[in-house]
Amino acid sequence: LRQGDRIILEALVWGVDPGDMTLEHDVSPAPAVPGPDDVPSRADRVAALPPDQPGPPRLPFFENFDQHPLQWVENWPPAGPQEPMTRHWLRYRPTPRFEDPWVDACRLLIPVDTFGWPAASQAHAWIDPPQAVAVTVDLQVGFHRYTEDEWLLVEAVSPIATAGLASATARVWDRSRCERTWHRSC
Questions:
Q1: Dist CA 75 CA 17 (whole Å)
Q2: If you write DSSP's letter for every residue of the chain in order, what string do you get?
Q3: pLDDT tens by residue, 91-105
């Protein structure tokens, strides 16, 4: 991807046709969490806050999703550091999924790429305003299964941030709780 004469994004994409040879195993259990219909949406939670109580920051990018966060901090900013992890049920809006499998794979790629920062920032959410906002510098994603489910369970964990570099790992499942992707970024 170029902007004028400058390269601003470089990606390598490849696919596999396993033919007759496949390895099959799955020991990637999804977190034991309620389904999206059993978790209040972010919009409902924000609407329920008293008018004088600030809620979590509004980030317009995340309005592309119907979000059902599995963690919620009632009083924002929180009193202290939170666990650097986030779990959300997500469904895109206005178009929840796409017929083309390569385009639909991007539906899983985007939250895998973007939820590392919300996870990392949880450890610093009590500092208002935030000291930094980060972007992904290096991203590796493996897509293990195709899904036609509109709902995606995204879990991102940021176990370490030091010297200006935050690391995050994200995984995505659908409502069948079969893992769809795995990624690690630094």
A1: 50
A2: -EETTEE-----------TT--------PPP----GGGS--HHHHHHTS-TTS--SPP-GGGGGEEEEES---SSSS-SS---SEEEEEEEESS----SSHHHHHHHHHHHHHHTHHHHHHHTTTTSSS-S-----S-EEEEE------S-EEEEEEEEEEETTEEEEEEEEE-TT--EEEEEEE-
A3: 999 999 999 888 888
